[in-house]
């Protein structure tokens, strides 16, 4: 003989929804009872009611957007880390071979790519040179799993000014995760940022 289901998820969900609905109704009933009686014939104009409803939704939307923005700022480094583990971004990693990762070689490559009009790779080389600089200065030793967001968090607490690092890191994020075209102006900004970093 088959055993009968004593409960299931659909039933539990419908029970929960019913309880939440009843709780809301009870709260509104209590609120209605606690409000003072309005004089006979007095009512809120329909357009005022619509305006209040609109303002409520705008405020709620702004609050949800603010919460989402705060969560994004908090968890984006972990998200980038998770995404980079799932996809093959090894070409963006720093190579351990000292010849490959030497700053001089990376800067020469950057100039070569710039002359060829390959601004994406030129900016990428400047980014890698920055990482090598951070490694050599023992500010942020190489760590393959470290994301751009994690580099920024680390640098905000250890270097000043942060702006040149932010320029190179945000450009690198665009290279990895964005479809934005990298223009000569972007390269010039990155090159200037690297100059500022290397002169510290």
Mind explaining what this structure looks like?
Helix 4 packs antiparallel against helix 5 (119-136), helix 5 crosses helix 7 (163-177) and helix 6 packs antiparallel against helix 7. This protein is mostly helical and 200 residues long. It has helices at residues 9-34, 46-86, 98-101, 103-116, 119-136, 148-156, 163-177, 184-198. It has eight helices and no strands. It is elongated, with a radius of gyration of 28 Å. Helices cover 71% and strands 0% of the residues. The N and C termini lie far apart (81 Å). This is DUF4129 domain-containing protein. The chain crosses the membrane at residues 54-72. Residues 126-195 form the Protein-glutamine gamma-glutamyltransferase-like C-terminal domain. Keywords: Membrane, Transmembrane, Transmembrane helix. It holds the Pfam family DUF4129.
Structural class: mainly alpha
Mean pLDDT: 79
Low-confidence stretches: 87-100
Bulk shape: elongated
Give me the number of helical elements.
8
- According to DSSP, the number of beta strands is 0
SSE string, helices as H and strands as E: HHHHHHHH
- Share of β-strand residues: under 5%
Separation, N- and C-terminal Cα atoms: 81 Å
How many whole angstroms does the radius of gyration measure? Answer: 28 Å
Tell me the major beta sheet. none
Oligomer: single chain
**Could you estimate the helical fraction of the residues in percent?**
over 70%
